[in-house]
Design brief:
single chain; 157 residues; mainly alpha; 73% helix
Length: 157
């Protein structure tokens, strides 16, 4: 079965929009509950086109995210590379799951990514005092079906 070529312009546009949404200033609970849009966009592209958007592309996008956020270089790159590895290791099952089950996997994978990020930041700067940062994994799981359907429609248009 031949896979169709991805729309690279849509990939770059979706990454740009995800970067823009990740730097919108929020405070308090809203900052912790912000969906991880960059993780979600890379989750979509890795799931739909694993040959083109795998671990290396995720790592590069993560490095760009580090530069944009002004965080320690390589932290987001490592986290997104781990995310791509996890997706690729269970890709056949993930592609068969309905969106609701994919949302649960998104919650688990984004939660692992957030914990890894906070763990490394805890060594380098200041450790997290509570688990409020995990609200981002919950909101990402809620947003996943909408983002997945939207990107699929744009890609098929």
């Amino acid at each position: 079965m031949a896979r169709e070529e991805p729309h690279y312009l849509l990939f770059f546009a979706s990454c740009f929009l995800a970067f823009c949404l990740s730097i919108v200033p929020l405070s308090g609970l809203a900052a912790n509950a912000r969906p991880e849009f960059v993780c979600l966009v890379m989750f979509y592209w890795t799931l739909k086109h694993p040959q083109q958007f795998g671990i290396f592309v995720s790592w590069i996008v993560g490095l760009l995210w580090d530069v944009l956020m002004g965080s320690t270089l390589g932290v987001h790159g490592l986290a997104l590379a781990l995310q791509a590895y996890l997706i690729l290791s269970m890709i056949q099952r993930l592609q068969m799951y309905p969106l609701l089950q994919q949302s649960f996997v998104v919650f688990i994978v984004v939660g692992i990514v957030l914990m890894l990020y906070r763990w490394i930041e805890g060594f380098l700067a200041q450790p997290a005092r509570d688990m409020a940062y995990m609200l981002g994994a919950v909101s990402s799981a809620i947003v996943w079906p909408f983002l997945s359907v939207s990107l699929r429609r744009l890609e098929n248009a």
